[in-house]
Amino acid sequence: MSIVLTVFSVSLISTILATLVVLADKVLNNYGECEIDINDGDKTFMVTGGSNLLSTLASSRIYIPSACGGKATCGLCKVRLGSEVGAVLPTEEPYLTKEEIDANVRLSCQVKVKSSLKLYIPEELFNVREYKAKIVRITRMTRDIKEFQFALVNPASVAFKAGQYIQVVTKPYANIKESVMRAYSISSLPTNNQELEIIVRLVPGGVCTTFMHEYLQEGDELSLRGPFGEFYLHEGGDTLVFIAGGSGLAPIKSMVFDILRQKLDKKLIFFFGAVTKQDLYYVDLFTKLDAEHDNFQYVPALSQPDISDEWEGEIGLITEVVGRYITDTADMQAYLCGSPGMIDACIRVLEKAGLSQADIYYDEF
Ligand SMILES: Cc1cc2nc3c(=O)[nH]c(=O)nc-3n(C[C@H](O)[C@H](O)[C@H](O)COP(=O)(O)OP(=O)(O)OC[C@H]3O[C@@H](n4cnc5c(N)ncnc54)[C@H](O)[C@@H]3O)c2cc1C
Ligand code: FES
Asked: Is the CB–ligand 2 distance for residue 111 below 6 Å?
């Protein structure tokens, strides 16, 4: 009898405690209706407080750049605040410079909306939309890279600059119960504005890339958000050097094709670094482009070709190959896309050759 009473008392106390926690959470986290004011009145609207600023804005169709979906691991979701929201969190510190902290720049995924807020964002973010898109073709390019072609369903077209990226919103699958959002550079041409192509490298154990490589089928529909990013062609530069590795080829493909299509009076050289021949892709496409355009040169390079590759092209790390080709950097700009390690090494080589940091643009992932 006493055991039954003890069990009953313990469960009663647990239930009361659990109810108190839920009630306390409701009271403490009830921030009510808060006004969001963007760019001094350009847009104002009411939201319910209590969530982070990134998702609060998204629910009002204001999409801030994000590659990690709010995990504080990409540092892309910065906004400048015109209101006080408390001290910078340790999770934000690695991504904010002292100047940014002084200017009240914060990671929107780490700021909780607890009261009315003023904030400032670039105007072009007002053009970012969520698109329903249908997968029309999935093509394997290498052992770990696939190309995905989307047809836009609603809205039916998108305006973007070659080099920009979109966010893919995944659906729950297998043990993954929540949607995630990841950034992918658009590899197709801006003129083909009813379709989008992206190139995705499978990251072992990666939530989004596993979904895309192993669960997504032709005919499926997905949500995409964009366009985002400042990795696009900038003013100046008679000679443009493009350097990519792996899926970093994606934005470069869009930029190279767009520049050649516009017949801009520029000389282009594209270095693509891979380990062995089986890591190369789009070789025929770029070789043909090279043959058709006097102002475009394609330089694929292998760091460790197999004997069976019978490789007659450039051999060596992409930095060594770039160092051999780039000796005169007058009127030059460089556009780099690939892993952080590759980008850092390429920047060092280009600077050593005389290129100033201001003429080097990059997207790293
Ligand atoms: C602006 C921008 C553009 C991008 N464009 C492309 C693109 O065109 N094509 C493309 O394939 N990717 C691109 N990415 C990377 C992409 O957004 C994802 O980060 C990547 O696909 C991994 O997502 P995931 O959900 O599969 O992995 P997650 O579940 O996020 O990560 C799983 C694990 O893998 C690690 N990890 C994450 N990313 C990588 C990586 N790239 N290499 C090695 N380990 C990693 C994580 O640290 C984690 O431990 C881009 C990123 C940015 C910021
Ligand atoms: S969304 Fe990636 S750090 Fe905020």
From this structure: no
Whether residue 134 sits in one domain with residue 118: no
CA distance 38 to 41: 6
Residues 157 and 66 in one domain: no
Residue 81, domain extent: 33-125
Ligand 1 touching residue 181 (CB < 6 A):
no
User: pLDDT digit string (tens) for 143-155?
Assistant: 999 999 999 999 9
Residue nearest to atom 18 of ligand 1 (CA): 182
For 206-249, how does the pLDDT look when each residue is reduced to its tens digit (9 = 90+)?
999 999 999 999 999 999 999 999 999 999 999 999 999 999 99
Task: Specify the CATH number for the domain of residue 211.
Answer: 2.40.30.10
Q: What ligand 1 atom has the least distance to the C-alpha of 229?
A: 1
In a domain, 288, yes or no: yes
Q: Is the CB of 141 under 6 A from ligand 1?
A: no
Closest ligand 1 atom number to CA of residue 200 = 11
- On whether the CB atoms of residues 308 and 279 are closer than 8 A, the answer is no
If one residue of 74, 182, 214 were mutated to test the ligand 1 pocket, choosing by the most ligand atoms within 8 A of its CB, it would be 182
Cα(251)–Cα(226) distance, integer angstroms: 14
Residue 167 Cβ inside 6 Å of ligand 1? The answer reads no
Same domain for 168 and 88, yes or no, is no
Domains of the chain: total: 3
DSSP 237-267: -SEEEEEEEGGGHHHHHHHHHHHHHTT-S-E
Q: Which of 228, 263, 287 is the endpoint of a domain?
A: 228
